[in-house]
Amino acid sequence: MGKGGGSAGPTESKVVQSNLPEYAEPYYRDLLARTGVESALPYTPYPAPRMAYFAPAEQEAMSRFTEMGVAGTPPELDVAGNIAGTVGMGSPYAGTMLEVTRRAQEMPSMADPYAMASYMNPYQQLVLDNQMREARRQSNIMGQEIGLQAAGQGSLGGYREGIMQAERERNLERQLGDIYGAGMQQAFGQAQQALGQDRAYADTAARLGQAAYGNLLSGDAQRLQAAGMLGDYADQRQRMEIERLRNMQAAGEAERRLRQAGMDIGYQDFLRQRAFPQEQLGFYSQMLQGTPVTPGTTQTAFGMQPSTMQQLLGAGIASAGLYNAFRGPQG
Q: pTM to 2 decimals?
């Protein structure tokens, strides 16, 4: 007899097992084998250079650009600057030329009595004084003689003496005036002649000074023009040199770009060649995944509740079936 108490009712569980069909198994094995081989291959570095170095034309252009940069100011510009500086400072003779012209312009006129007096001979007055002193002495002697004659004639001589003395005085004054006038006229003529000579010399010197100053200004203008031409020449030559170097650099750059394009093509071919086996495996795998494979399934019912271990095994049965299929038959 059975013991008392109720018994548990029957339970039911399912186990699903999945297997690959036999026709697909070899292909999956081959895929895994080839994948293993590919994954074990070492890294293959690219054997050729990746970047094209500067072309000789580029190197030459950059070298000349560097030389141009460190060469400093072109010598023509230094010469032009020195010329401009010299002209700007002025000639040391320019002041003398202008001073000669100024003095000529400040020469006194013939009508200026003060100027004429300054040109009169200072010894002329001494000569006049001597002549006038001599005339007075002679007149005094004549006056004494008239007095003596008058004393010998008594009372009648006194009247005649007065007349003769007055005439003597008048003659003396006229003689002194004539002496002074003649002397002053001579002195004025000499002063006028000296002033005229000085004016002629001054005018000549002024003309020479003005001509020299004009030549100096003209020469300065020519030197400044030459300095400007030197500066323009240096600037134009530098621009032409820069243009030539840029053309040289552009030609070298075109050559380098062409070589770089060839290197890039070679590197892309290398990458495609190295990736070709992986691409083939990918294509192979996609073809297998796209094959309408429907593995067979079976269901088995048991009369007891599966344990936890059985549930875990049931959950991973598909993986186990795939594993068994790849293992092949066991002895």
A: 0.42
Expressed in percent and rounded to 5, the helix, strand and coil fractions of the chain are 75, 5, 20
| Contact residues for 314 (Cβ-Cβ < 8 A; gap 6+) | 13, 14, 15, 16, 306
Give the pLDDT of residue 317: 42
Q: Give the whole-angstrom CA distance, residue 27 versus residue 35.
A: 12
d(CA 171, CA 184): 19
Question: How big is the chain by its Cα radius of gyration, in Å?
Answer: 69
Work out the pLDDT band at 17, boundaries 50, 70, 90: low
Instruction: Please give the Cα distance from 20 to 325 (Å, whole number).
Output: 7
How far is C-alpha 131 from the geometric centre of its chain's CA atoms?
85
Measured from the Cβ of residue 42, the count of other Cβ atoms closer than 10 Å reads 5
Is 213 within 8 Å of 161 (Cβ atoms)?
no
Q: What single string gives the DSSP state of each residue in 111-154?
A: T-HHHHHHHS-HHHHHHHHHHHHHHHHHHHHHHHHHHHHHHHTT
Map out the domains of the chain as residue ranges.
Answer: 13-42+276-327, 69-264
Contact criterion met (CB below 8 Å) for 188 and 110: no
Distance from C-alpha of 32 to C-alpha of 18, rounded to nearest angstrom = 19
Residue type, 151: A
- For the beta carbon of residue 213, count every other beta carbon within 10 angstroms: 19
The pLDDT mean for the chain works out to 74
Neighbours of 147 (CB within 10 A): 14
**DSSP 8-state secondary structure symbol assigned to residue 71:** S
* pLDDT computed for residue 271 by the predictor: 93
Provide the residue type at 321 as one letter: G
Nearest to 91 by CA among 201, 214, 227, 203: 214
